[in-house]
Amino acid sequence: MVEAVKNVTIEIKPGEFFAIIGPSGSGKTTTLRMIAGLEIPTEGRVFIGDRDVTFLPPKERDVGMVFQSYAIYPHMKVYDNIAFPLKIRKVSEEEIRKKVTDVAKVLGIAHLLDRMPSELSGGEMQRVAVARALVREPRVLLLDEPLSNLDAQVRVTARAFLKRLQRELNITTVYVTHDQSEAMVLGDRIAIMNYGEIQQIGTPFEIYRQPANMFVATFVGSPPMNLISGSIIERNGKMIFDAGAFQLSIPDNIASLIKEKLMHTEVVLGIRPEDINAVPYNEGLNICGTVYVTEYLATHQWVTIAINNIYIKAYAPAEVKINIGDKMCIAFDSNKMYLFDKKSQKSLMT
């Protein structure tokens, strides 16, 4: 039997924008579908507030859902698409008109109510889908990759719109995405999933600066964190990270988190590319190598430096001329390093 999700426990606060991210097949959409009532868990319960909704159908759960495809009916005008959930509940025409008009004004699409879906842009379609989910005034709004079909420029605008709307309505929102930048911008807290399990739950800052394991460390951040295998040794009372090609002294505040039993244990050092500076070759620096590749991004460039068989990506200003094959060194604040157990892949700093 395949387990799409396992041992997942999430508590979402009222009014919170809660993002769930992970690679394809990680279980994030299945988790959302269990909240919506489209999947029934084989174990465990689903509560909305104090109400156990585990076995209730979607229409009785007081949730609104926006799908990746938007699921807009092409033969209905925008007004009728938004009104549809109310019509099937036999709400009076007068109340439907008021609710549809009100939600359309909030979402800035009142001028589109007489149009057909074929006349709408991608961003307008997305707003119609959100309006239809909100017209019932649900307790929880569920969003499954709602921006993935939009082009990059529209996506940025739609992202800001969703954030502002959620704040204005103060509606509890669960947002599933594979895009970590969306989650970091939108989420009050983020759950990261992999292989059906929660890897970490925390604020964007906690996820980025206090990763629980190597998966979280590399999944969040672009470019991903540099990971360098090595071991911990002691020299003259100081703890040293030995990568073979080079050695680094571990700051006292980090060393205090590492137990003595980890001495001579295989570990992985992590450091984010933006925390490393690629600098001109200097014999006084002890971590130097050869430029393997450069990636120019107008405002800056990423420089990958090969140190024997270790490849480290570092930051350099855009105006600095760097060629493949140049000798360069790296410099960084050692207080921004991370250490992970190589076997368990868990952080050694928590």
UniProtKB/TrEMBL annotation:
CDD domains: ABC_MalK_N
PANTHER family membership: MALTODEXTRIN IMPORT ATP-BINDING PROTEIN MSMX, OSMOPROTECTIVE COMPOUNDS UPTAKE ATP-BINDING PROTEIN GGTA
Gene3D superfamilies per UniProt: 2.40.50.100, Nucleic acid-binding proteins, P-loop containing nucleotide triphosphate hydrolases
Keyword ATP-binding: yes
Top-level taxon in the UniProt lineage: Archaea
InterPro entries attached to this UniProt entry: AAA+_ATPase (IPR003593), ABC_transporter-like_ATP-bd (IPR003439), ABC_transporter-like_CS (IPR017871), ABC_transpr_MalK-like (IPR015855), ABC_transpr_MalK/UgpC-like (IPR047641), Mo/tungstate-bd_C_term_dom (IPR008995), NA-bd_OB-fold (IPR012340), OB_MalK-like (IPR040582)
Protein name per Swiss-Prot or TrEMBL: ABC transporter ATP-binding protein
Gene Ontology cellular component list: ATP-binding cassette (ABC) transporter complex, substrate-binding subunit-containing
One Gene Ontology term of the molecular function aspect: ATP hydrolysis activity
SUPFAM superfamilies the UniProt entry points to: MOP-like, P-loop containing nucleoside triphosphate hydrolases
SMART domains tied to this protein: AAA
GO BP of this protein: carbohydrate transport
Domain ABC transporter: start-end pairs: 1-220
Keywords, sorted A to Z: ATP-binding, Nucleotide-binding, Transport
